[in-house]
């Protein structure tokens, strides 16, 4: 029987709130067993781009990563945010170690091909690009890897990569080696049956139930890509996906997605 | 007999010149055996502070690291510079892994006490603050640790720390475990007998010769702190200190400092 491994993903909302981030890191230090943390970036990078007079370029709501933008997001994600999280976990007695995808060749991605849109220095990835051996060594040494959303192409180029995708790809790549639970942490307590009622958290969701709720339009549209992604991870061997509040990860209120 | 270990230190000059940095990284990839790289920061952090309207505060030529400055130097040193170096080494086929002092609790420092001057978020360190176990694990796994000049205090605070000091402190802390050679790489070929004659490189320098040359005023004043520091490392068990050109580390022209 493989060991259990929990992969937590946090997003920009909590990174922008130091007091909330500290609550999350303290709660994370109380979660037993081996863990990996994946984090996105907050609005700091956008604020700095603006302060430097670099206008964000968006196509259909997705940022174009030109060279100047890549520099700034690398500074924020791999520098400030990653090191503040690592130092914050060390404060809680957790031996965290921060990584970009270039470090130890952890995540090798491909620059997204230019089609109608040139997204610039953006990386797409597959499980084959994950250096699971390094992660297993670090976890075996009692470390908590903290992964930011910067990858590389192996040819010296850093690439900006979606943090949700990194978390689910890590989970899929590690599924042959661990019983992986993937925890998406955000500002709500889980998947809500009624988006206006924070108490309407679904405790459990199977693919069948999800299809029914999707068809009836009960689940908020914004949750659909995350849930599609989550069920794809379950189908690919991840044991469990949990959708929960970043401030309450040790509470029982959450949505657990199960393969059946 | 302990294994050999080479610790290389590069400074801001080469970091500001991408083409030169690439030459250094390629040459570094050709150096056999286990290695550690320590890097300072270039002028990018100062440029950005200026662009953001944050005036550098200097006392006796030393920067005061206030909270805003710490954020920027963390972004540059631990983010942009560290990850560009790591990605550049990966391109050369070297499995580099970037670290701040917070990562894996690699370097725990003390915030410099406030006396007549408050240097702000600056860290002072001793060999006791170095996690030699982590470095030995990473080196044993075939990785090349790339250390930036950001440390932490273990209580969640990141600290700006002198890169020369980090390199010599790492060398001293690792001396019981390896035959350590500490390589200070800069823009000259070594210690010059005549600062105006680039060909006047001293091939070898013992403490006795150094004291004679120091007394006669032959060595450039700017080299004295570096050399004092280097001989202190030799006295503390480091096998060899090398002063050499960052662009020519595999050439034979260099100054080798020996204990006797």
Automatic annotation (TrEMBL), chains A, B:
Q: Where is this site: Transition state stabilizer?
A: 9, 226
Can you say what this protein is called? Answer: Acetylglutamate kinase
- The record places domain Aspartate/glutamate/uridylate kinase at 6-245
Source gene? argB
What broad class describes the main subcellular location of this protein?
cytoplasm
Tell me the function of this protein. Answer: Catalyzes the ATP-dependent phosphorylation of N-acetyl-L-glutamate.
What's the family?
A: Belongs to the acetylglutamate kinase family. ArgB subfamily.
Which domain of life does the protein's organism represent?
Answer: Bacteria
Pathway in which this enzyme or protein is active: Amino-acid biosynthesis; L-arginine biosynthesis; N(2)-acetyl-L-ornithine from L-glutamate: step 2/4
Under the GO molecular function aspect, what terms does this record hold? kinase activity
What does the record give as the reaction this protein catalyses?
A: N-acetyl-L-glutamate + ATP = N-acetyl-L-glutamyl 5-phosphate + ADP
Residues the entry annotates as binding substrate? 41-42, 63, 160
Presence of keyword Zinc: no
According to its UniProt record, this protein's enzyme class is: transferase
Q: Where in the cell is it found?
A: Cytoplasm
Q: Which EC number(s) does UniProt give?
A: 2.7.2.8
């Amino acid at each position: 029987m493989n060991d259990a491994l929990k992969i937590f993903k946090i997003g920009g909302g909590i990174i922008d709130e130091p007091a909330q981030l500290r609550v999350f890191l303290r709660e994370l230090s109380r979660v037993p067993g081996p863990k990996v943390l994946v984090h996105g970036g907050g609005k700091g990078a956008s604020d700095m781009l603006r302060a430097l007079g670099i206008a964000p370029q968006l196509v259909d709501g997705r940022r174009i990563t030109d060279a100047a933008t890549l520099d700034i997001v690398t500074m924020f994600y791999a520098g400030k945010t990653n090191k503040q999280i690592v130092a914050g976990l060390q404060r809680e007695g957790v031996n965290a170690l921060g990584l970009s995808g270039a470090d130890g060749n952890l995540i090798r991605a491909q620059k997204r091909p230019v089609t109608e849109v040139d997204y610039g220095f953006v990386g797409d990835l597959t499980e084959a690009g994950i250096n699971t051996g390094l992660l297993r060594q670090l976890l075996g040494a009692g470390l908590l890897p903290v992964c930011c959303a910067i990858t590389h192409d192996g040819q010296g180029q850093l690439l900006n990569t979606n943090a949700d995708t990194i978390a689910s790809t890590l989970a899929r790549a590690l599924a042959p080696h661990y019983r992986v639970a993937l925890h998406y942490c955000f500002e709500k307590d889980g998947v809500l049956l009624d988006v206006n009622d924070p108490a309407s958290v679904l405790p459990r969701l199977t693919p069948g139930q999800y299809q029914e709720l999707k068809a009836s339009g009960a689940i908020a549209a914004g949750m659909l890509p995350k849930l599609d992604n989550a069920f794809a991870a379950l189908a690919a061997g991840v044991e469990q996906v949990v959708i929960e509040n970043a401030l309450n990860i040790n509470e029982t209120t959450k949505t657990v997605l199960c393969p059946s």
